[in-house]
Amino acid sequence: QVQFAESGGGLVQPGGSLRLSCVASGSIFRIYAMKWYRQAPGKEREVDAVITTGGMTNYIGAVKGRFTISRDNAKNTVYLQMNSLKPEDTAVYYCNADPPSEWGQGTQVTVSS
Question: Could you please report the per-residue DSSP string of 37-73?
């Protein structure tokens, strides 16, 4: 079972940027597609971005053009570069494999002036 540790969240003003990191345990990280999710207060967890084992990416909804997902298999790490942040991006962000494994604790992103 792969486990994940997310980091890099924080408080940022609208229009600002953050880079989230997610380190996966286990040497089999490279065989999984990876996803970044968000969960806003009172809402269901939803997918923002996906990256395949070969590095192909897909973005969902309002993050297109603002967020970039990437991965470094040598470091067992997936990243989410978040630019032009908006207050509606405020959420706890999680990463997970596809198919999903155990959820990490996530990292809080708060966009506010």
Answer: EEE-TTS--EEEEEE-TT--EEE-GGGTTTEEEEEEG
